[in-house]
Amino acid sequence: MAADVVDVLIVGTGFAGMAMAIKLHEAGFTDLLMIEKAADLGGTWRDNVYPGCACDIPSHLYSLSFAPKADWSRLYPQQPEIYEYLQMVADNYGLRPAIRFNTALLEAVWDERAAHWVVTTSTGVITARVLVSGMGGLHIPALPNLPGLARFEGKMFHSAQWDHGYDLTSKNVAVVGTGASAIQFVPQIAPQVAHLAVFQRTPPWIEPKPDRAMAAWEKKLLAFAPYRKLFRQFLFLLHEVRVLAFLGNQRALKLASHMAAKHMQQQVSDPVLREKLTPHYQIGCKRVMISNDYYPALALPNVELITYGIAEVRAHSIVDAKGVEQPVDAIILGTGFEVTTAYKHWKITGIGGQELGALWDKTGMRAFKGVAVAGFPNFFMLLGPHTALGHNSVVLMIEAQVHYIVDALTQLRAKGLPAMAVTPLSQSAFIDDLKRKLTGTVWQDGGCASWYKDEHGFVSTIWPGSAASYQRALGAADLRDYQLLATQAPN
Question: Which residues contact residue 48 at a Cβ distance below 8 angstroms, ignoring those fewer than 6 apart?
């Protein structure tokens, strides 16, 4: 079977993949294809449908600047409305004909002679001059390595694979993990279960969530474009200032810690429970949560917070580290995603047969400005290494990356050449600068272990600065950072 041939292949149809397709099309790159492993678009917001799933960034900031929605129902969006928004974007920009659903990326190999990618998918082979990953880092569930977990005979599922067909009513349920997902679904299921055992390894810092329904008059006002832009800018600045604490500003750190501690004191009256929930690391070292109902849920009489770990999982129970056996009908894994190791599931081969997974196994994730990797021509990443945020909307980062990639490809097109590869020197200089910027930050020196750090101890996921500084860094592509490549003549 002959391979399909396209100019640009985009993997993934969440915020990143769709933004990339829209802006490439506007720049005249119309020969493009998007592939999606699932039967529907939406990425993270398609897959995560657990009870209470919502975003911790305000609606008008967690949306594409060029595709505004005036009538968000709440100040902070919930999963169904974000999913509906992404469907609307796809329809408004006519993306569906460019998407091949139920098509998973299996392997991509750079053909040096032809200067294009040969991409093997679950539905066939595609050759593409440019390959863009819009897969992000929150799509492969992380499963804990617990003794005996495979022997459990009850119901077990990850929060990103929620089984809505299983009735939790009057069941004995164990929740493993207290990350962003658990913070949201624990309050939803606690009132309906017979007993809920929440196994916490490290307590998160939790701030109050200033969520509310948007009034009808606000929606009408926000339909007025100048006001909507002003409101978005206000939200941007409000969140942007929070980075000062994470960068090590002691006054900002003290203020943020005080707000979180006060929130706990107001909601947790039991001193024993409060001690269990008190973090002993700098705020921001791990992801800061926002919630108004998590602490009250833990105080319910049928809920138990267990902080000394799991010794063993048995067929119908969990034995904690103190030897206490908890009867369990269902285990819900709120253990997050493979972020620093997601690349292990890819098979992308660049110049000289170098495989990306093998390379990053040695070095850790490294990418120039978070979008390109030396030795992998015409391969670009959205939400790649060094681009996550702990304080502001990641959609801002996506748009900066999309702008940069479109600019780079537009300049390459003007040169009349097919391919570009970031130089090792430019990538090394960028990583060295990152390391300098990370010194003194809570991510590097905050006293905790988190998914921000890889197995080498390097903070490979976070951008160590403001969102505005990243936007400036990706303002325009400098072709001096790249080696420009041509096709090779056949022998």
Answer: 79, 159, 160, 162, 181
